[in-house]
Design a protein that fits this description.
- It is elongated, with a radius of gyration of 24 Å.
- The strands form three sheets. Strands 4-3-5-12-6 form a five-stranded mixed sheet, covered by helices on one side. The protein has a five-stranded mixed sheet with strand order 9-8-10-7-11, covered by helices on one side. The protein has a two-stranded antiparallel sheet with strand order 1-2.
- It has about 300 residues and is α/β, with parallel strands linked by helices.
- It contains eleven helices and twelve strands.
């Protein structure tokens, strides 16, 4: 059987874009040409691949099952045929999906988009929200770069430690905890909100308090840092969260920041990606750009030297 391997590229674009017109624009061909490619793909696979539902087209079950493998094959072929080429950022045409914690996206998202667009104007970024449950999107190639507070355990997931953030306590102006020194007893007796996309009412802070014979009353769990900070501003609830990635948001809301009254471990920040991108020059550039952007958060603030205007 003779196979036209160009159909793999067309199939990858069709599954990525979800439409003939979108795939045609992505590959710089006409819509009729892409329609003919879809017809040949259907004949070769014995599957409709995309079916119309109302005004939209949706992938079939088999198309969904093969999407990750098709994407991986196309990426491998691209790497094989262009391994000796220098990376030309000005000509790079690619879509990257970056899935970061909401606080990190709020703190660094603008800087990352600006840095990427300035050097590679043809690159588009998808900033994706974190899911409520663990999944294998990195392994399937649906996410290019992810943030995490823990190193991965899967051997095919690479990681890079880009920083470490200390925890701070945030409360509204005039909160009772701002009057006098913050003791561990006063901290534990206050009402708290946790930040958890899974809705957990407990985190490592509770473990640290338990070892000292204390417990705190957690009133609510917020899905994002932004929600928890707004809740702290509007109520007497106390939120304890990483300093650097929430500093701008706290200052914008006018919250008061206090040091925690007990030693708490710093929160590490990792960037994660799949090993298929280890030698991908464009992905390597994205990783380095993201690393520089995130590490700028942890840089100490610069102050002018004495006598320097």
């Amino acid at each position: 059987m003779q196979l036209d391997l160009n159909l793999l590229t067309a199939l990858d674009a069709l599954l990525e874009e979800g439409s003939v017109a979108g795939a045609a624009a992505r590959l710089h061909v006409t819509s009729p040409a892409m329609s003919r490619s879809l017809g040949r793909i259907r004949k070769a696979t014995g599957d409709q691949i995309l079916v119309r539902t109302g005004r939209n087209m949706v992938p079939t079950t088999r198309a969904l099952a093969m999407r990750a493998q098709v994407h991986a094959l196309v990426q491998q072929a691209h790497h094989l045929l262009s391994a000796q080429q220098e990376l030309d950022l000005t000509a790079l045409d690619r879509v990257f999906t970056v899935r970061w914690h909401d606080a990190l996206t709020a703190a660094c998202g603008t800087a990352l988009i600006t840095a990427v667009h300035r050097r590679a104007p043809g690159v588009r970024l998808r900033l994706s929200a974190e899911p409520g449950t663990d999944d294998a999107e990195l392994r399937r190639g649906e996410v290019d770069l992810e943030s995490s507070s823990s190193a991965p355990t899967l051997p095919d997931i690479r990681h890079r430690l880009v920083g470490s953030d200390r925890l701070v306590v945030a409360v509204r102006p005039g909160h009772p905890l701002t009057g006098g020194p913050l003791s561990i007893e006063r901290y534990a007796a206050a009402e708290h909100v946790t930040v958890s996309r899974r809705g957990s009412l407990r985190d490592p802070i509770d473990d640290a308090l338990t070892t000292r014979g204390l417990g705190r009353h957690v009133v609510a769990a917020g899905p994002t840092a932004a929600f928890a900070l707004q809740l702290a501003l509007d109520t007497d609830l106390v939120v304890t969260l990483p300093d650097a990635v929430t500093r701008a948001a706290r200052e914008r809301l006018g919250l008061v920041t206090l040091p925690p009254p007990l030693p708490l471990p710093d929160v590490p920040l990792y960037l994660l990606w799949h090993q298929r991108y280890d030698d991908d020059r464009a992905h390597s550039w994205l990783r380095d750009t993201a690393t520089e952007t995130v590490q700028a958060l942890f840089a100490p603030p610069t102050t002018p030297s004495d006598g320097v205007l």
